[in-house]
Specification:
Blueprint (H helix, E strand, L loop, with lengths): L9 H4 L10 H15 L5 H11 L8 H19 L4 H44 L34 H21 L4 H16 L3 H10 L7 H20 L4 H23 L8
Helix pairs in contact: 2-5, 3-5, 4-5, 4-6, 4-7, 7-10, 8-10, 9-10
């Protein structure tokens, strides 16, 4: 039979006397902070799964990943000069790893597609040179397009490299360079405010590469509509969070710009709904 509270010595209850259930306001605050930390990742899950399932990444612009990598690395550096809320810092760290994961699957899928296309092209060319000669089909030529690497420093193929290693190298170099500059100019208010603005502006332009790709293709085929829908919901929530929590002005001004770009992509979905993707 459980011992009634009044029979338990007061000295044993004393350590728990200060523990209270969180109020509704505190609970909502905790939920909002959790949404800020992990909410940015969820929109990319449908796109990741679509690419993995279809084996085709042509409809998704990897420059979206570049945008968010630069934006979140700059935001992390901005924190050292002007401490903002820790949930925003945690969000940036998680987003960096998320973008690397999404870039990796895009690069892997595109490289595999290049190999298959090259095999088919070489096979077709070789077989057309020896039509109906009664012999076995010629061996496939397994050569592919030249390997493109970050260390080649070829601007024509920037962020269009062959292997994921090059993307890691760029990320590491960019982080080290910006980190060193931040360490040198940490006491310079103008530098700190500039990287803060560049961070949120780069994030605000998140949808711009996807908008441009859709515009060129005159199609949204291969782009996850769920991803864009989650972008819009998340950006609206995030902008409201910035305003309520009185985050630096750069955050909420660029947040509103980001919402505007999201809505523009939705308009493309409507405009191009009856058009096939251009291969």
């Amino acid at each position: 039979m459980p011992t009634p509270d009044y029979m338990i010595p007061a000295v044993l209850l004393e350590p728990f006397s200060g523990i209270t259930m969180p109020s509704l306001t505190e609970f909502i605050s905790i939920v909002c902070q959790g949404a800020m930390i992990f909410g940015g990742v969820f929109p990319f899950i449908p796109q990741y799964l679509d690419i993995k399932k279809s084996g085709n990444a042509d409809g998704f612009s990897t420059f979206v990943c570049l945008n968010l990598l630069i934006a979140n690395i700059l935001r992390i550096m901005f924190w050292f000069g002007r401490h903002f809320e820790l949930p925003l810092l945690a969000q940036s760290i998680i987003m960096v790893f998320t973008m690397l994961a999404l870039t990796e699957i895009c690069v892997r899928v595109k490289h595999r597609s290049e190999i298959l296309a090259s095999k088919e092209h070489k096979f077709t060319d070789s077989y057309s040179d020896h039509p109906n000669n009664g012999e076995a089909p010629p061996r496939l030529n397994r050569s592919v397009s030249p390997v493109r690497k970050f260390l080649d420093f070829d601007r024509a193929y920037f962020w269009k490299w062959t292997y994921f290693t090059s993307y890691l190298q760029f990320t590491a170099v960019f982080t080290v360079v910006v980190g060193l500059m931040t360490w040198l100019f940490l006491d310079n208010m103008y530098y700190v405010e500039t990287i803060g603005f560049l961070a949120v502006f780069a994030e605000a332009m998140l949808g711009a590469p996807q908008f441009y790709r859709n515009f060129v293709n005159k199609s949204t085929h291969g782009m996850s509509k769920k991803m864009v829908g989650m972008w819009t919901c998340g950006d609206c929530f995030k902008t409201g969070y910035f305003i309520v929590r009185q985050a630096p002005a750069q955050f909420w001004i660029c947040g509103m710009l980001q919402v505007g770009i999201d809505i523009s992509i939705f308009l493309q979905v409507y405009c191009y709904r009856n058009k096939a993707a251009i291969s």
